[in-house]
Amino acid sequence: MTTATARPTVPISARDFKSDYNPIWCPGCGDYSVVLSFTRAFASLGLRPENTAVVSGIGCSSRIPAYLTSYGFHGVHGRSLAAAAGLKLARPDLTVVVASGDGDGYSIGGNHFMHACRRNVDMTYVVMDNHVYGMTKGQPSPTTEPDWNSKLSPGGTGVRTFHPLVIALAAGANFVARAFSGDPSGTANVLVEAIKTPGFSFVEILSPCVTFRPEQREWKNAVRPAPVGTTNDPARAARYIMTDDGFNLGILYRGERAPYQPPMGRGNKQPADLEKGFAI
Amino acid sequence: MTDVKKGAGAAARTSVSVAVTGSGGAGVMTAGNMLLAAAAKAGWYGLMVRSSGPQIRGGEAAALCRFATHPLDCLDDRFDVLVAVDWENLHRFADEIPLDSASLLVGDPAQGNPPEVYVKSAARYAQLGIKGIAKAISGSWPNMVVLGVAAGLIGLPKDAVRAVVEKTLKKSRDGLAPSLAAVEAGYEAASRIGGDAKLAPPGPRSEPRWLISGNQAAGYGAVRGGVRFVAGYPITPATEVLEWLAPALADVGGVLVQAEDELASINMIIGASFGGVPSLTATSGPGLSLMIEALGLAVAAEVPIVVVDVMRGGPSTGIPAKSEQSDVSIAVNGLHGDAPRIVVAPNSVSDCLVTTQWAVHLAETLQSPAIVLSDQFFGQTRAVVDRPPDATYAGRRLTAAPNADAYKRYAVTESGISPMAIPGNPGTAYTADGLEHTDRGIPSSGARDHTIQLAKRERKLLGHEYGDFWADIEGEGDIAVVTFGSCTGPVREARSRAAADGVQTRLVSMRLLAPAQADRLAKALAGVKRVLVVEQNHSGQFLKYLRSEFQLPGEVKSFRRPGPLPIRADELHHQLVDWSRA
């Protein structure tokens, strides 16, 4: 492990977390604002770029690490949670945030989502949900309405949508929230709480795809603060989320489960001590 | 063919082979392990190969043991003794446990008749009511009777057996006395049966010895190489690597995580290694297949990782608990894109240690994935070995200095290796990327960046000086045997038998399969007129790989057979002698 040489720590602004690499998203994409929310949350928490890592998979949302000045990991499709868990378990000193989308996170990465919630490693999972595969030009994802017409599924998939927040609760996530990219300050506040809360924090960010789902421009008129406060009762949170229309924003659940962190670095035997078990 | 030690009397052999079989759950593996431990205690070398069906109980199980006065790398061609607890599934082992007229078959007539194939073998059949003996000793088990019988037949000192039984059952106050009585009854039965399977007294013990499986050795090699993070998913026959590492890593300050699947295991270790911690996973063919995409990520993002593949019969679920060398092609070729990777293969149970350690060293040095091709034979065989010499291979990763000037993660260097910034290091943050990228790590689909980075990643592997450890090269002669992995043991034994017939041969046992060391192999084969390529798979994957990467001199023959039958020294010996006279 590398130890950083001590330098006077100057406060870092949100702007310092934005890289000089220009995003390649479509004009009007909700994800631009999410980058802003990330940088604001990191600055407000007093994080340093060298001690922060943003991990992602594949898809429009997964391009985020390159747009930040923190350490980044842009891996394969659907496996960001696994890579992030490995990083955090090996390096508990780092702040680890995962950026994903509804295809990367709920479809190809669905199994890891369940087990990441269950494992409860101390990291924050941000899914930018726009109900469509944008990078491959408009195919239905697990959160796409069953009657949404597309070239790949003419007339709609006919398959019901997936309910990520309830699944997160059932699987054991310690923090469940919904935010809207059109409200970068509100989203930044949710991210701050998500990162501060020990254990696995799940934040769904409604982030419109104006190219393939132009009707999502109307989301700004549909979202509202959830009329209920944060609960620590998963059953209550699940009942509420199951019946809402998907546009209630806020921190809907915050638990007190201790994070999973095996004692990395604690054992102090020498490798040669292990030989004793082999000796005749 | 069993060697007889000169001057030690007709009955004293330098090598003796014993199989113990029974239905799954009958405890034959326990009996075999105790027999091996007792032989080790008494000063002999030995090994025990596990052979079983996929079921845990109700299937078939065999402990295939060989004991000798000298170190062993493989089973013999035939068995001197077979002790069967029951006949139920024994016919399934007919090919794996060959008996002949000089063999002894011990079985229970109360269980019916021996299988036809063994009747035809003309092996001497000694009837013994194993279950009846066990039943008469309240609280004992048939496998303890079998232990006594087998130990008695090969002349194992009773003290050594008793000591092992006592150690194994030290926590079971009620089980010890009946077990010792059953062992005693087994010895008595053996003395009635007689036979000529007695092993010559062991030679003096010069080196410290270990009793170790290849899977344990691989685990220890990983720790010695510096691995401190492991993620894995259970799979036969690799699970023991992970099970050994779980407490071992905790002891040395590392961590093992059980992942939800192999996709998670490999991505977890890539994440951990990105974080600066040398990382490894262990799996078998089906798991390796799932890991292929992420192995390509480790190539592109230049993240060092090690994958130990304990090969089993394939394709698909194949033959999970039995050995085969059929993952050569997927290991050397199985990634999309131009994806250079390191592939190494240990060539003995104890070599699983140093070769895995070397793999960690290579992966870390070259910032590349390394695949270790072990197999079920090595992985699950427990062997008495001389303690392997200490190797100094350790992970040494070139890392970036804090606030390195104009840091470029994928800087194009002469060696191809560029300093890797580890999270926590200030002023060098970058994004590791599976997308093709510029030297700074910025995604790029430009032709120039692609060409430059492909060449960089290839250069760092091709330009590395791998040293003499790349292969074990032995002997002279114009016939050479080129092989790898667990075929090396039988080849070595065949060569020494051929030498006794006056036929000198060379051996090249390749430890480094990829990147191909064409010049080194050419040098090793200089002057050779005939090359025999030996491997344990159906289609000749190793030969195909050799033909694609190397110029093989003279006449080339393939000697191959799929698992689970091992390649035997006897058949190789005849091949070498016949060829030399052709």
Describe the protein's architecture and organization:
The complex is a heterodimer of chains A (280) and B (582). Chain A is built from eight helices and eight strands; from the N terminus they run αββαβααβαβαβαβαβ. Chain A has 280 residues and is α/β, with parallel strands linked by helices. In chain A, helix 3 (102-108) crosses helix 4 and helix 4 packs across helix 5 (164-171). Chain A is globular and about 70 Å long. The model of chain A is unreliable at 1-6 (pLDDT under 50). With 582 residues, chain B is α/β, with parallel strands linked by helices. Helices cover 36% and strands 19% of the residues of chain B. Chain B has 18 helices and 21 strands. Chain B has helices spanning 28-41, 116-120, 130-136, 142-154, 158-168, 173-193, 214-225, 239-251, 262-274, 285-301, 328-333, 351-366, 376-380, 447-462, 488-500, 518-524, 541-549, 569-581, and strands spanning 15-23, 45-52, 60-68, 81-84, 104-107, 124-127, 209-213, 229-232, 255-258, 279-283, 305-311, 342-344, 369-375, 382-386, 431-433, 471-474, 479-483, 505-510, 512-514, 530-535, 555-560. In chain B, helix 1 (28-41) runs parallel beside helix 4, helix 1 crosses helix 5 and helix 7 runs parallel beside helix 8. Chain B is globular. Classes of the chains: A alpha/beta (280), B alpha/beta (582). Chains A and B meet through strand 2, helix 2 and helix 4 of A and strand 7, helix 7, helix 8, strand 9 and helix 9 of B.
